[in-house]
């Protein structure tokens, strides 16, 4: 059965398709990650997600250039389009 | 870019031609003849649709390099007579040939370019460009001495290509450069010809002629003076031609190109399919409106040098003024150098390559089937429209039908609609229960309420002569009449449960199959075509069979835990699929499916991992806990929204025997109190019990399914009674624990904590939510009451006595808001009324 | 094309476009093209203090490539249909 499942998956996007309608985790450029329910994707990895939580990892720098401990900023969005050029990876 | 340059350059050349012969105008008109253009456009269009786009690119590449000689024959075949003329035209050969050539180019190659570039804005520019094209061809040939030496097979095309490369070097003077630029259009055109397919009839001499012409060309081309002369004339000629063309030829051309394209916007598929180029042209028009106009204007005003400058593009064209001659010369040289460097890449893309790219771009905007590339927008707007209609017309039943039909056709039921559907089912269930209860209450009034008097302890109204404070509850669980089921047979085969990936894969396959099936249903042949209908029906049936197999419902019951089918409807994605599946499955299959579902109900995530009862204050939970709860709650909500309506629908199609069978399966294969402690479980049992009751009491008119009015089979009734009694007795001791509020108290805060939580608005909202959950359970026990025999009713009341009193007290407690109190009373009364009692009787 | 199709259904709705430079612009979507260039009307900027130059701008054209996110109302999206459309597109692409 697993082989059967694998045989139908010939390209990476097929794997993404399996996550349609499911919650996915997406790593983005700029130290951002988001999770949300995947509703659409295309070949550019443009995606449309709902019930999104975005996490931004920030490292603030003091005036003399020393980095402060990293902090995390979170935002919730009910429906979000993410442009594909920022997507690094998608995981379910 | 070559295309644009080609335009610019074309002007002077063409003028030269004109100068050579006034007859050429005929030629122009000829090339503009709509018929030829049409043929060309059609050919191109045909290719577009039938062939993969790639063929275009390949063919072009081949043409550029050298191959495609057969094509050359065809291309030049058109021109046959024209070819010779063409080459001569630079040297101002006989009028006839030139004209012929003009026609050929116009029809074949230039037609495409013409269509692509702003034909509408100015007909003149196009005419110019075409002229230029063919004029350029000869000129370049002349520059290349090699061409004649070429072997025959290579033909004009190969020669032209070489010319292109060689040209920049050869033509160092500014004037000379112009032709080089012009050359660009030609090779592509030749390449494009083959791709465009339909060769014009009447090409015989092409090869020989070409060679001869080439030879001829070489001579005249060397003299740069000739071209300039021609150009001088060209301006006038151009103007004249413009006038003429605007009068005649353009007219003919216009109908094909400018008009259809205008309308053939991206969304309009048919436009593109039919007229191929025209739509592209339209697009280009819209994108570069200034293109067509700008080019000719500059050409006219500036004279020959301008053309050169135009080609360079980046450089400002030098105006020919005598004082600045030296400067101009330098400029020209620089320009020439630049052009040469740029020309290195000339013709890297043939016109068909450019067509190819244009097509790629356009193909994204237009397709033959708007449902293919624009599915979402098309269907979304259709749904929106239908929704607006339905809103406008309110509850009109026809509208509902429309909506349903659309849903089927669309293949994607809207979340909204499903939401409503889910709500409807829940309301339906509760109204069913309510009706049953009311009916029962009426019966009871007449019958013996005496047996229940005092069942709740003190009864204020009625006969209080001999109140029985406490009931002796007969807890006689006699599982003798335990129903059996063939589903219980053990097969012995056991497999591992599906992995998550397998589930997801299977679900995607199912979705694909469903989408295809829905598309198929949408494409139903007209009702008149009997044979087609039969075929279509068979195809649909085959698809349904595939789907049925993929559902894995027929796998042995104990093959894995969870059963593969349960695995499929565990994820939200699978739950969403459920109602769409049911729509297509025949009734017997749906019943099989429901039997399986009931038998394996405990394997469902929403049952096995039911969310814990809500707590009065969710802020006490850890974050992980909250997330987990939220996830499980969401799953449960989805299950209630997507699966339960389908379950209810199937149950409503079942007879009493089947319902009894289902209940038996459930009682036998699972611990019913565990199932009943979950919302999906409550929903399932409520559906089953209320259906049974409504079948038994056939006189009750049930508007939901009016066809259910056959008399009940006594054997079935007996079976039902036994099953139900067993079921009830198994459940009785656990009844109070089914209530979420009881559970919440026990789980989190101990008794009473829940009652105190009614002060802040957040708790109030959670409390209301709690009452809603409670209502589901009260509805369930009400159906139990309605179904129960007399002695069982007593037992039922006994089991719930505390709960009832507690709830009524809470409702009367001053700290309870009015809204909540009402809900509580309504809940309790739902149950009590079923027994012919009322909460107001309780002190 | 799927996403283009998706955005077409959002026309005349209020959306928030977050650009890669962290500028967030809220406005009514007037048009979109296949590059996902976006035209917004009646715009307002989320953080006007940081972007005072945007105060006077009432409508704008946003090049698609500078967009990071587009936020929209959940109710303006039919997720079931959108997933179906995605499946269809994926299938089309495989042919």
Overview of the molecule:
The complex is a heterotrimer of chains A (92), B (843) and C (95). Chain A has 92 residues and is mainly beta. Chain A has helices at residues 2-7, 12-18, and strands at 23-28, 32-41, 47-58, 71-82, 87-91. Chain A has one domain: SH3 type barrels (Roll), CATH 2.30.30.100. The two termini of chain A are 20 Å apart. Chain B is an all-alpha fold. Chain B has two domains: 2-363, no CATH class; 411-454 and 622-843, no CATH class. Helix content of chain B is 72%, strand content 0%. Chain B is built from 41 helices and no strands. In chain B, helix 2 (24-32) packs parallel to helix 14. Chain B starts with a helix and ends in a 9-residue tail after the last helix. By secondary structure, chain C is an alpha+beta fold. Chain C has helices at residues 2-8, 79-94; strands spanning 14-19, 24-32, 38-45, 60-62, 67-71. In chain C, a hairpin with a 5-residue loop joins strand 2 (24-32) and strand 3 (38-45). The two termini of chain C are 16 Å apart. The relative contact order of chain C is 0.22. The model of chain C has no long low-confidence stretch (mean pLDDT 89). The interface between B and C is medium-sized, with 28 and 21 residues. Strand 4 (71-82) of chain A pairs antiparallel with strand 5 of chain C, so a sheet runs across the interface. Chain B: Residues 67-77 have a biased composition (Acidic residues).
Summarize the structure.
Chain A is 14% helix and 49% strand.
Alpha-beta classification of chain B: mainly alpha
CATH architecture of chain C: Roll
Structural class estimated from helices and strands of chain C = alpha+beta
Distance between the termini of chain B: 93 Å
Q: Order of strands side by side in the largest beta sheet of chain C?
A: 4-3-2-1-5
Helicity range of the residues of chain B?
over 70%
Keywords (chain A): mRNA processing, mRNA splicing, Nucleus, Ribonucleoprotein, RNA-binding, Spliceosome
Function (chain A): Binds specifically to the 3'-terminal U-tract of U6 snRNA.
Main location (chain A): nucleus
Domain Sm (chain A): 11-92
């Amino acid at each position: 059965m697993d082989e059967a499942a694998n045989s139908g998956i010939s390209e990476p996007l097929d794997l993404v398709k399996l996550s349609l309608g499911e919650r996915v985790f997406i790593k983005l450029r700029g130290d951002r990650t988001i999770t949300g329910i995947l509703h659409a994707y295309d070949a550019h990895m443009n995606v449309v997600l709902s019930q999104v939580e975005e996490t931004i990892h920030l490292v603030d720098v003091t005036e003399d250039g020393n980095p402060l401990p990293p902090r995390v900023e979170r935002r919730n969005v009910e429906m979000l389009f993410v442009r594909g050029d920022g997507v690094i990876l998608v995981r379910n | 870019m070559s295309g644009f340059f080609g335009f610019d350059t074309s002007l002077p050349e063409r003028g030269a031609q004109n100068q050579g012969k006034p007859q050429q105008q005929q030629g122009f008109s000829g090339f503009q003849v709509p018929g030829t253009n049409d043929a060309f456009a059609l050919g191109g269009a045909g290719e577009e649709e039938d062939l993969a786009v790639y063929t275009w690119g390949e063919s072009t590449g081949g043409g550029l390099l050298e191959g495609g000689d057969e094509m050359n024959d065809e291309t030049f075949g058109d021109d046959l007579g024209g070819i010779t003329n063409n080459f001569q035209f630079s040297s101002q050969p006989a009028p006839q040939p030139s004209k012929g050539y003009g026609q050929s180019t116009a029809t074949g190659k230039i037609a495409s370019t013409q269509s692509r570039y702003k034909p509408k804005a100015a007909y003149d520019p196009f005419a110019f460009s075409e002229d230029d094209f063919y004029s350029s061809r000869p000129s370049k040939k002349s520059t290349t001495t090699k061409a004649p030496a070429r072997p025959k097979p290579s033909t004009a095309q190969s020669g032209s290509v070489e010319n292109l490369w060689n040209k920049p070097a050869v033509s160092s003077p500014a004037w000379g450069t112009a032709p080089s630029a012009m050359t660009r259009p030609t090779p592509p055109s030749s390449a494009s010809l083959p791709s465009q397919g339909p060769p014009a009839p009447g090409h015989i001499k092409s090869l020989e002629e070409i060679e001869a012409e080439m030879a001829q060309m070489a001579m005249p081309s060397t003299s740069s003076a000739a071209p300039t002369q021609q150009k001088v004339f060209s301006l006038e000629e151009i103007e004249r031609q413009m006038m003429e063309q605007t009068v005649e030829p353009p007219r003919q051309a216009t109908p094909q190109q400018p008009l259809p394209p205008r309308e053939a916007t991206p969304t309009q598929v048919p436009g593109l399919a039919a007229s191929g180029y025209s739509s592209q042209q339209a697009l280009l028009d819209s994108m570069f409106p200034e293109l067509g106009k700008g080019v000719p204007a500059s050409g006219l005003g500036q004279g020959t040098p301008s053309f050169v400058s135009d080609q360079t593009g980046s450089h400002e064209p030098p105006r020919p003024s005598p004082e600045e001659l030296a400067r101009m010369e330098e400029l020209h040289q620089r320009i020439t150098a630049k052009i040469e460097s740029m020309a290195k890449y000339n013709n890297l893309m043939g016109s068909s390559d450019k067509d190819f790219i244009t097509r790629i771009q356009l193909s994204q905007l237009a397709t033959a089937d708007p449902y293919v590339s624009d599915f979402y927008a098309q269907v979304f707007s259709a749904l929106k429209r239908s929704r607006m209609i339905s809103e406008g017309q309110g509850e009109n039943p026809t509208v509902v039908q429309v909506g349903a039909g659309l849903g089927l056709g669309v293949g994607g039921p809207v979340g909204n609609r499903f939401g409503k559907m889910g709500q409807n089912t829940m309301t339906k269930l509760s109204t069913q229960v309510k009706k049953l209860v009311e009916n029962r209450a009426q019966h009871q009034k007449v019958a013996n309420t005496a047996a229940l008097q005092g069942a709740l302890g003190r009864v204020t109204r009625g006969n209080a002569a001999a109140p029985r404070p406490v009931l002796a509850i007969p807890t006689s669980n006699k599982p003798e009449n335990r129903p059996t089921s063939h589903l219980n047979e053990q097969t012995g085969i056991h497999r591992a449960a599906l992995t998550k990936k397998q589930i997801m894969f299977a679900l995607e396959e199912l979705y694909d199959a469903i989408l295809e099936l829905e598309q198929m249903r949408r494409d139903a042949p007209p009702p008149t075509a009997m044979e087609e209908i039969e075929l279509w029906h068979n195809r649909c049936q085959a698809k349904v069979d595939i789907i049925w197999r993929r559902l894995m419902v027929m796998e042995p019951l104990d093959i894995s835990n969870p059963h593969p089918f349960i695995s499929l409807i565990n994820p939200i994605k699978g739950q969403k699929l459920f109602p769409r599946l049911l729509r297509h499955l025949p009734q017997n299959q749906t019943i099989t499916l429901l039997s399986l579902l009931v038998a394996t109900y405990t394997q469902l995530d929403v049952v096995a991992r039911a969310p814990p009862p809500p707590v009065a204050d969710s802020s006490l939970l850890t974050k992980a806990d909250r997330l987990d709860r939220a996830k499980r709650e969401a799953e449960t909500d989805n299950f209630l929204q997507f699966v339960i309506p389908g379950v209810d629908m199937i149950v409503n199609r079942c007879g009493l025997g089947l319902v009894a069978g289902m209940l038996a399966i459930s009682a036998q294969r699972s611990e019913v109190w565990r199932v009943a402690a979950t919302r999906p479980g409550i929903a399932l049992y409520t559906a089953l019990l209320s259906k049974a009751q409504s079948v038994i009491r056939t006189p009750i008119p049930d508007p939901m399914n009016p066809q259910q009015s056959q008399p009940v089979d006594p054997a079935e009734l007996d079976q039902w009674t036994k099953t139900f009694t067993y079921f009830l007795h198994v459940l009785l001791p656990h009844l109070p624990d089914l209530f979420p509020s009881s559970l919440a108290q026990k789980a989190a805060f101990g008794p009473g904590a829940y009652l105190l939580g009614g002060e802040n608005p957040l708790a109030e909202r959670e409390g209301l939510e709690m009452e809603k959950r409670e209502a589901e359970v009260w509805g369930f026990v009400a159906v139990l009451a309605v179904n129960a025999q007399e002695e069982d009713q007593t037992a039922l009341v006994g089991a719930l006595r505390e709960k009832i009193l507690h709830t009524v007290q809470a409702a009367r407690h001053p700290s309870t808001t009015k809204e909540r109190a009402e809900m509580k009373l309504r809940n309790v009364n739902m149950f009590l009324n079923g027994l012919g009692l009322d909460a107001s009787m309780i002190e | 094309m799927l996403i283009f199709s998706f955005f077409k259904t959002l026309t005349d709705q209020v959306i928030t476009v977050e650009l890669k430079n962290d500028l967030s612009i809220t406005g009514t979507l007037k048009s979109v093209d296949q590059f996902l260039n976006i035209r917004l009307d009646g715009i307002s900027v989320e953080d006007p203090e940081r972007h005072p130059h945007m105060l006077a701008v009432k409508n704008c054209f946003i090049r698609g490539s500078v967009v990071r996110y587009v936020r929209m109302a959940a109710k303006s999206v039919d997720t079931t249909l959108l997933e179906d459309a995605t499946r269809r597109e994926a299938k089309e692409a495989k042919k």
